[in-house]
Design a protein that fits this description.
alpha/beta; Rossmann fold; 7-stranded mixed sheet
Length: 186
């Protein structure tokens, strides 16, 4: 697992082992090709951050800030080590908290990119989307990306977000949700 592009390109990231399910380099590269220029200057929220691979990649590519939310102690140590290794600590905030507690009580910020990569087969991805729905965490032009196993996918009843794209990379599926056009107020 490495940083693919930007200021920290080529740096190999540390992993705590079986405690996390990292995104493959292939899927991560495709993700950032899809996000494109949206990452420049973005405020990124990396939920169930694992080793911080997605948030670190965003920072390396010019994101303004990234918040990493993780509960596992070993994963948190890996995030801190990886931020130091990539020299991106200055623009990062690492939060040790349950994702749902963070979303209900830990932030009032608005994010441009929210990445959701929970443990598989526990319906946490859908519950997280439902928690994000209509709560004001996503900017009007923002995107929520859920990383799941393709067998986990099902439609989620959301009021202010809609599925706009999905891509499959082997056993990884990336689902892109954006604000409903009718939900955007100008």
């Amino acid at each position: 697992m490495r940083v693919i592009s930007g200021s920290a390109k080529g740096r190999t990231l540390k992993s705590p082992g079986a405690a996390t399910r990292p995104i493959t380099d292939r899927a991560k590269e495709s993700l950032f090709n899809i996000l494109g220029a949206r990452v420049q200057g973005a405020n990124v929220l990396d939920l169930y951050a694992g080793v911080g691979s997605v948030g670190i990649e965003a920072l390396s590519r010019g994101a303004r800030a990234a918040t990493f939310v993780e509960l596992d102690r070993d994963a948190l140590k890996a995030i801190h080590d990886n931020l130091a290794l990539t020299r991106l600590t200055e623009h990062a905030k690492v939060v040790r908290l349950d994702v749902f507690k963070f979303l209900r009580h830990g932030t009032t910020e608005e994010y441009d990119v929210i990445y959701v990569a929970p443990p598989q087969y526990k319906e946490l991805w859908a519950e997280t989307l439902e928690t994000l729905d209509g709560r004001g965490f996503l900017s009007a032009r923002g995107v929520v990306v859920a990383q799941i196993h393709p067998r986990e996918f099902h439609a989620v009843d959301l009021k202010t977000l809609e599925l706009t794209d999905s891509r499959r990379y082997g056993s990884t599926m990336l689902c892109f949700y954006q604000p409903l056009r009718s939900a955007i107020t100008v």
